[in-house]
Amino acid sequence: MIDHIGIPVRDFAKSKTFYLSALAPLGIGIVMEVDTEDGPALGMGAKGKPFFWLSRAPVGKALHLAFVAQSRTEVDAFHAAALHAGATDNGPPGVRAHYHPDYYGAFVIDPNGVNLEAVCHKPG
Question: Contact, 111 vs 60, CB < 8 A?
Fold first, then answer.
């Protein structure tokens, strides 16, 4: 199952305005905003769950796709299996508390340049 997807945008302010307007009729709005190494990121969604992310990124930066993991052990196994299959590490398994205290994820870059993640939202 897909947990969330993130797209890089060139003009963060313009994209934020566009998506807030376009997605409002679907009940999708801002759930959270965070600062990243590249600048601001906007988590949009519904019922407190951000599932569509915008982030300011340089042209050519890849799509981000996160899959649901049922446990932290699954996140660890995903990371190891992906690296074994030829992915490049983009963040080892660990807690990312800037999203929430139980956010446990791991990141890899697939052979096509896509930033893949497995994430578990359950307490450790």
Answer: no
Q: How many whole angstroms separate alpha carbon 67 and alpha carbon 20? A: 24
The helix (H) or strand (E) run that includes residue 12 is helix 12-23
Q: Are both 48 and 67 inside the same structural domain? A: no
Segment 37-86, tens digit of pLDDT: 778 899 999 999 999 999 887 666 778 999 999 999 999 999 999 999 99
- Burial of 102: CB neighbours in 10 Å, binned 0-12, 13-18, 19+: middle
Query: Is residue 121 in a domain?
Result: yes
- In the chain, the number of structural domains is 2
Kindly report, residue by residue over 93-115, the tens digit of the pLDDT: 999 999 999 999 999 998 778 89
Question: Last residue of some domain: 56, 71, 97?
Answer: 56
Under 8 Å between Cβ of 50 and 44: yes
CATH number of 93's domain? 3.10.180.10
- Distance, CA of 42 to CA of 3 (rounded, Å): 15
